[in-house]
Every structure is written in structure tokens, then in C-alpha cells.
Amino acid sequence: MCLAVPMEVTAIHDKIADVEIGGVTRQVRLDLIDAAPALGDFVIVHAGFAIRRLDRDDALETIKLFQEGLGLELI
What we know:
Blueprint: E1 5-13, E2 16-21, E3 24-29, E4 42-46, E5 49-54, H1 56-70
Antiparallel strand pairs: 1-2, 1-4, 2-3, 4-5
């Protein structure tokens, strides 16, 4: 099973962004989303790609559901 995870953009380097959740930082490609995100935006990440921008409220609600369902501390 694969999960798409909301992560916060912490840096942008052309078509690659650094994203973070729960102290874990990854680099993801930005090729699949319409407009480049800004620092502090949330994106849905799957298989190394940002696949959609997500507004902050929706991202935090989704993260909360992950935390409750999986027993993780992500924020």
C-alpha cells in the first residue's frame, strides 16, 4: 500500500523542493504540479514527487488524521 503524505515546503531549488514532516526532510520533484509552491506551503508527496498543493488547514487536518490513525507524532 502506498500513501501520499502532506509535507511542508522548507526550501525550493528550481524544480526540486525540500519538504518536512515530523522532523523528516526529503527532496521532491515539482514537475507534476501546476504552479511552484512557496516556502511554507504544503504539498501532497507521493513516490518522490509533489503531486498537488494543499491549503494549510486541509494539510493540518490530514496530518491530524494520520497521527490519530497511526499513533504518530508528526507536528
